[in-house]
Amino acid sequence: GFWGLVNNAGISTFGETGWLSMEKYEKFADVNLLGSIRTTLAFLPLLRKYKGRIVFMSSIIAYFALGNGIYSMTKAAIEKFCDALRLEMKKFGVRVCIIQPGNYARSTKIQPPVSAEEIWNELSDEEKAVYNKEYVQERANFFNSILSEGSANGNEVVDAMVDALTSPAPKARYMVAKLKEKALVFVCALFPTAVMDSVLSYALSK
User: Fold this and answer.
1) Is residue 171 part of a domain?
2) What angle do CA 49, 166, 153 make, to 5 degrees?
3) What is the CATH number of the domain that holds 163?
């Protein structure tokens, strides 16, 4: 029978909210969110029949954003879709699992290095009147430094996916991340929003 479905497709980009076009928002929602929903709905009858597994690729970025709010938005939405689906599928014996990787940019190549020049050239006149090239360059350098720190051990995420598919008692969530990334999620989940905003603002200022 049909046992497992892994919704892994995803795209990423960098840019502050006003820098991105509505078309780009629609594309990201279509691939990262609606794509997973479409695939899930297509295979749901078989998964119910065979009491299978559904695995979704989320991210710790679902909890906070550092220059890629458009990606965070889609991952946060996936989390809520999975929360609803997991409860609904329990009565059918279908397990729903979420994988939450940390920074694995070097493994996945999901996000190429950011070019400040390309970003500037794509900005509208309104945005260029608010920002300057120096600011865009600073933000691009910051984001590129994050990408360069990504783990190259992509097998860690694959191992979590395999466990979600094969374990007799899979976890609802698999957070596969460095200790400092897990600490950031912990702060975001348990501390007031003002504290998290201060932490992220400090990181961005550096």
Assistant:
1) yes
2) 135
3) 3.40.50.720
For residue 65, give both structure tokens: 């954003």
64 within domain boundaries:
yes
- Phi and psi torsions of 45, nearest 5°: -60, -40
Mean predicted confidence (pLDDT) in 109-119: 88
Confidence of residue 10 (pLDDT cuts 50, 70, 90): very high
pLDDT > 70? residue 206: no
pLDDT at residue 167 tops 80 = yes
Q: What is the pLDDT of residue 73?
A: 95
Tell me if 56 is assigned to some domain. Answer: yes
DSSP letter assigned to residue 51: T
Domain that holds residue 29: 4-199
> Would you say residue 206 lies in a domain?
no
Does 63 participate in catalysis according to the annotation? no
Catalytic residue among 71, 104, 131, 174: 71
Phi, psi of 188 (to 5 degrees): -65, -40
Give 5's strand partners.
54
Strand pairing of 4-7 and 53-57? parallel
pTM of the model: 0.91
- Give 176's contacts (C-beta < 8 A, 6+ positions apart): 99, 100, 101, 102, 156, 157, 160
Tokens of 77: 């939405």
Segment 14-73, tens digit of pLDDT: 889 999 999 999 999 999 999 999 999 999 999 999 999 999 999 999 998 877 899 999
Do the beta carbons of residue 177 and residue 101 sit within 8 Å? yes
